[in-house]
Write a structure and sequence with these properties.
about 190 residues; mainly beta; Pectate Lyase C-like; six-stranded parallel β-sheet; about 25% strand; binds zinc ion
Length: about 190
């Protein structure tokens, strides 16, 4: 585990972003950071413990990657495809995901609280113990996924399909389920 380096700005206690001297707020060259962060994501296989908060990524495919303890808070991911990736304790809170796909991925304790997922797809993924608290999911489809113990409390699910999914002990309390549909899933085993 790497210890975060503090931001060099006076009186700032936030950690510096990976490869940078500053936190996102105090970056001197935000455009340069976006380029460096995107390059890092493309090149490095192991993204463990990197802080790439607020990164913007578009039209990328990441295959067989490991993201453990990685911070992608407030990231904007557009048409990003994750194939056979491991995402464990990934901080994706307050992020925006549009048209993203997760295929045969293992997501464990991924934090997407307060995030917005539009037109995303999860196919054959383990999505266990993930946190979607107060997230907004629209036009998003989970197909043959294990969503057991994932937490959708206070989320808004609009035009969301969970087909052939394991919803055992998934938390849907206080969620706006709108027109959630759950064909051949065990919705009766979820907390509502
Ligand atoms: Zn700072």
């Amino acid at each position: 585990m790497t210890t975060p380096i503090p931001c060099k700005a006076p009186a700032c206690s936030a950690p510096a972003l990976s490869g940078e001297r500053h936190c996102f707020t105090h970056l001197e060259d935000p455009a340069g950071y976006q380029q460096r962060a995107a390059r890092l994501i493309e090149s490095d296989t192991d993204l463990t413990h990197l802080d790439l908060s607020s990164v913007r990524l578009k039209d990328r495919t990441l295959c067989d990657r490991r993201l453990v303890g990685t911070s992608l808070a407030r990231a904007a991911l557009d048409q990003v495809v994750f194939k056979r990736c491991l995402l464990s304790l990934v901080f994706l809170q307050d992020a925006s995901l549009s048209g993203c796909r997760f295929v045969e991925c293992r997501l464990s304790a991924v934090i997407m609280a307060g995030s917005e997922l539009r037109d995303c797809r999860f196919d054959d993924c383990d999505v266990e113990h993930c946190n979607f608290v107060a997230a907004t999911l629209a036009g998003t489809r989970f197909e043959s996924c294990d969503l057991s113990s994932s937490n959708f409390i206070s989320s808004t699910l609009s035009k969301v399909i969970m087909r052939d999914c394991n919803l055992y002990q998934a938390h849907l309390e206080l969620a706006d389920l709108g027109d959630l549909s759950t064909p051949i899933s065990n919705i009766g085993d979820a907390h509502r």
